[in-house]
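Weekly sync, protein design subgroup
Attendees: M.S., D.O., the rotation student, P.L. (late)

Item 1: inverse folding check
M.S. brought a backbone from last month's batch and wanted to see whether the design step gives back something sensible before we order anything. D.O. pointed out we never logged the input encoding, so this time it goes straight into the notes. Structure tokens as presented (60 positions):
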């Protein structure tokens, strides 16, 4: 039990050393991730449509 308490104390101390991003930075990073995800999803969707049509032409 002593090791668990020691671990929690050390983890807490390490978390106090972390430089957390500001609310504005977090919002900006979140927007960047959402936009990048949408771009990748659109790109993969287009590739899927292209490959699907190519495969359909070979099958039918």
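Designed sequence read out in the meeting:
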């Amino acid at each position: 039990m002593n090791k668990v308490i020691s671990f929690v104390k050390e983890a807490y101390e390490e978390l106090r050393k972390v430089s957390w991003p500001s609310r504005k930075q977090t919002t900006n990073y979140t927007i960047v991730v959402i936009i990048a995800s949408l771009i990748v999803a659109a790109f993969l969707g287009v590739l899927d449509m292209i490959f699907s049509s190519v495969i359909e032409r070979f099958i039918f």
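Discussion: The first helix runs from residue 2 to 17. The helical segments are 2-17, 23-59.
Action: P.L. to compare against the previous round before Friday.
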